[in-house]
Amino acid sequence: MSQSTQVSTVQFHNQTLITFEQDNLQYVAMKPICENIGLNWDGQRQRIQRDEVLNSTIVIITTPQMAESSKCFVSQSTT
Questions:
Q1: Domain boundaries, the chain
Q2: Which is nearest to 26 in space by CA: 62, 59, 53?
Q3: What is d(CA 39, CA 49) in angstroms, rounded to the nearest whole number?
Q4: For residue 45, which phi and psi values (nearest 5 degrees)?
Q5: What is the pLDDT of residues 24-64, one digit of tens each?
Q6: What is the pTM of this model?
Q7: CA–CA separation, 43 vs 34, rounded Å?
Q8: By the 8 A CB rule, do 36 and 15 touch?
């Protein structure tokens, strides 16, 4: 991955989502989404890791703008 990363937030259903773009891919922090809709993060993280497609898109990153608890991201291609 390149060193150029754009971190931003997006409002979605009255919640602020942490997102970033790197190498023309969009990423979103999954833990806050799970917690905001009442799902257990550990269970959802395990499901993501078991899923063949989602597991191939996991990226772990920490930036100064993000809490340590928001490290797991799943990507979605913009192309």
A1: 6-77
A2: 59
A3: 16
A4: -60, -40
A5: 788 888 888 888 889 998 999 899 889 998 888 887 776 66
A6: 0.67
A7: 10
A8: yes
